[in-house]
Design goal:
10 strands, alpha+beta, 53% helix, two-stranded antiparallel ribbon, 13% strand, eight-stranded antiparallel sheet, 516 residues, 15 helices
C-alpha cells in the first residue's frame, strides 16, 4: 500500500504540468456571456448567461428573479447530457429543451480569476451558470455543431427548471462540492448530479416497498439463520417433527418461532435475548421504509441500510447484551444440583450486577482502544466486586463469575453483530428488487456511449445508473493514474456527496423556493 501511494504521488508530481494545461483548456469551452442583443421582436431578446449564486440572500433573490423572468417557459420534456467534440478537455454540460427552438444550458467552471488552484484539494470558487438560447442565435448553432449528445432522457410527464435550480443550490451549498476541484467536483460531477436527480424524480421509490409483514418475516428468518448456525452443535430446537404433518408445515413452525434451548433444559438467556432482538428491530420498520426516499443511486442502498440499522442496534445494544449476559451468570449461580442460601444468592447477584454494569460500560466505550478496554474492563469488575465485605465470594469465585460473564458478553455481542449483518444483507436484496430504473424507452444514448470499462458488457445499452457509474469510473481512473487518489475511493466519496445533495435538493424543492 505505501508503494502504491508513493507511485501515485510521484506520478501526480510528474503530470501536474499536464493537468495544469487541462485546467486552462477547460476554460476555452466557456461560451460568451453577459451580452444582450435585442432584435426587432421582443420575443427574440437574447438572454445573457446567468451566474447562479445561492450563497447569499441577494443571490437567491437574483435566482428567483431569473426564474420568474422566464414566465411560463420553464417546463421541459427532454434532457441532454452533452460534451464538446474537440479540445484536450471535452467539457461536459446539461441541456434541457423548453420547446423546439429554445433550450437552457447548465454549466460548471472555475471562476475567471481563480483557476490557479484547481488542482488543490480545497479547490476554488465555482461558477455555476444557466443560459437560455434560441435557435436564431450563433451560440445556439455552435452548441449544436460543436458538441455531441452522450445521453438523452425523455420525460413524458415533464419537469420544471425550478427543480434543477434546487439541485444546483444543493451542489453549491454542499460542504465539499461547493468548490470547483478539477479532479473531483468539476463539470462532470455537476452533470452527473443533475442527470441523476432529474432521472430519480421519475422513479417510484417512495412507495412502501417493504411492508411491516415483510419486515417481520426478514427479522424472523434472520433470527433463525443466526441462531441455527451459531448453536448447531450446542443447542437443539424445542420443536420436533410432529406426527402426521408435512415437512413444509414443520419448517413453517420452526421459522415462525425459533426457541433454541441448551441440552438439559436451561435457556441461559437465549430465549430472552431472541425476544428482545425481535422487539428492538420490529418497532423500527418506519425508519427502514424511509430509506429509499433519501436514495439517489441504487449503489447507496447497502451503506444507507447499514447506517440506519447500526443506529437501531446501538439504541438498546448495551442493555440487551448486559441483561442476557447477567442472566447467563445467574443461571450458573443457581445451577441445578447446587444448594445456596437465599441471602447468599442475593448477595452474589448484587455483586455480579454491579460488576457487570461497570465492565460493560468500559467495553462499550468506542473511544478506547481494544487493548485498553481489555485492561480496564477487568479492573472495573474487580473494583465493583470489592464493594462489599459481608458474605463476599472468594477471589477464585470472583474470577470464575467474571470469566463466565465476559464469555457470555462476547457471545451475545457476536450474535447481535451476526444478526445485524444477516438483516442488512436480506433487506438489501429484498429492497433492491423494487428499486426500478428509468425505462429503456425513455433513454437514447450517443454513439460514443459505452458500458463501464473493465466490466462484462451485457447485450443492449446500459441502464441510466450504469451509465452514470460508467462515467464516474472512466473519469476517476484517469485521476487515479494522475496520482490524485484511488478511483474506488473517489467513486465512493462522489456517490456519498451526490446522495447528500439529493436530500438537500428535495428539501429546497418542497420549500417552494424560487416560486412567485
Amino acid at each position: 500500500m505505501p508503494n502504491s501511494t508513493h507511485r501515485r504521488s510521484l506520478m501526480g508530481y510528474i503530470l501536474r504540468p499536464v493537468a495544469w494545461q487541462l485546467s486552462l483548456a477547460s476554460r476555452l469551452a466557456r461560451p460568451s456571456s453577459h451580452k444582450l442583443i435585442t432584435s426587432v421582436k421582443s420575443s427574440h431578446c437574447t438572454q445573457p448567461r446567468f451566474i447562479m449564486n445561492f450563497r447569499s440572500p441577494e443571490g437567491l433573490e437574483e435566482v428567483k428573479g431569473w426564474y420568474n423572468y422566464q414566465g411560463r417557459n420553464v417546463r421541459f420534456t427532454q434532457l441532454e447530457y452533452r460534451k464538446h467534440k474537440n479540445g484536450q478537455v471535452k467539457h461536459e454540460f446539461i441541456v434541457v429543451w423548453l420547446n423546439n427552438t429554445t433550450l437552457c444550458r447548465f454549466d460548471r467552471r472555475p471562476q475567471d480569476n481563480e483557476h490557479g488552484q484547481v488542482l488543490l484539494e480545497e479547490g476554488v470558487p465555482a461558477e455555476d451558470s444557466a443560459h437560455i438560447l434560441s435557435s436564431f442565435e450563433t451560440e445556439y448553432k455552435e452548441l449544436i455543431q460543436q458538441t455531441e449528445v452522450l445521453l438523452t432522457i425523455k420525460l413524458p410527464r415533464g419537469e420544471d427548471l425550478r427543480f434543477i435550480l434546487a439541485v444546483c443550490e444543493g451542489i453549491q451549498t454542499h460542504a465539499k462540492a461547493s468548490v470547483y476541484n478539477l479532479m473531483r467536483y468539476n463539470c462532470y460531477f455537476f452533470s452527473w448530479m443533475i442527470v441523476a436527480a432529474v432521472a430519480r424524480r421519475t422513479y417510484n421509490w417512495e412507495t412502501d416497498i417493504l411492508s411491516q409483514t415483510g419486515w417481520n418475516n426478514i427479522l424472523q428468518t434472520s433470527l433463525t439463520r443466526t441462531f441455527s448456525s451459531s448453536y448447531r452443535n450446542e443447542y437443539e430446537s424445542e420443536s420436533t417433527l410432529p406426527p402426521r404433518t408435512g415437512i413444509r408445515k414443520w419448517f413453517t413452525m420452526i421459522i415462525a418461532r425459533p426457541r433454541l434451548r441448551l441440552r438439559g433444559g436451561a435457556t441461559s438467556g437465549i430465549d430472552d435475548f431472541q425476544e428482545v432482538l425481535l422487539s428492538k428491530y420490529s418497532g423500527s420498520h418506519g425508519i427502514i421504509r424511509r430509506v429509499p426516499r433519501k436514495l439517489l443511486l441504487r449503489s447507496q442502498l447497502g451503506p444507507s441500510l447499514e447506517r440506519e440499522l447500526r443506529y437501531i442496534e446501538s439504541i438498546s445494544s448495551f442493555s440487551t447484551t448486559l441483561d442476557a449476559s447477567r442472566l447467563r451468570v445467574e443461571s450458573y449461580v443457581y445451577r441445578p444440583g447446587r444448594t445456596i442460601h437465599p441471602t447468599l444468592g442475593r448477595n452474589y447477584m448484587r455483586l455480579i450486577n454491579a460488576a457487570s454494569q461497570a465492565s460493560a460500560a468500559v467495553l462499550s466505550e468506542k473511544e478506547r482502544s481494544r487493548k485498553s478496554r481489555g485492561d480496564y474492563w477487568e479492573m472495573a469488575w474487580k473494583t465493583a466486586w470489592e464493594g462489599n465485605g459481608y458474605n463476599r465470594p472468594t477471589n477464585s469465585e470472583c474470577e470464575k463469575y467474571m470469566n463466565r460473564w465476559k464469555s457470555a458478553w462476547d457471545e451475545f455481542r457476536r450474535l447481535s453483530d451476526q444478526y445485524l449483518a444477516i438483516i442488512t444483507e436480506t433487506t438489501m436484496v429484498t429492497m433492491m428488487e423494487q428499486l426500478t430504473d428509468v425505462v429503456p424507452e425513455q433513454l437514447m444514448f450517443g454513439e460514443s456511449t459505452r458500458h463501464p470499462s473493465g466490466e462484462d458488457q451485457p447485450e443492449g445499452p446500459p441502464s441510466l445508473q450504469e451509465f452514470i457509474r460508467g462515467r464516474m469510473k472512466d473519469h476517476f481512473e484517469i485521476v487515479d493514474r494522475f496520482g490524485f487518489g484511488s478511483y474506488q475511493e473517489l467513486i465512493t466519496t462522489a456517490e456519498e456527496a451526490m446522495c447528500e445533495i439529493w436530500v438537500t435538493s428535495l428539501e429546497t424543492w418542497e420549500s417552494g423556493r424560487f416560486q412567485s
